[in-house]
Specification:
Largest sheet: none
Distance between the termini: 68 Å
Structural class: mainly alpha
Number of helices: 1
Strand content: under 5%
Number of strands: 0
């Protein structure tokens, strides 16, 4: 019985966390103006 109660509490906590994150929405991010260095240096 304790396992069933613990599972129910865990499921309720996970659902509450998902609903909270959904309500807050995604944060507004921005991209960096600096380009990433993707070139490979030449081998000697």
């Amino acid at each position: 019985m304790r396992a069933l109660t613990a599972a129910a509490v865990g499921l309720a906590a996970a659902l509450a966390l998902v609903l909270t994150l959904t309500a807050l929405g995604t944060p507004q991010g921005h991209t960096s103006p600096k380009p990433l260095l993707t070139t490979v240096p030449e081998h000697p």
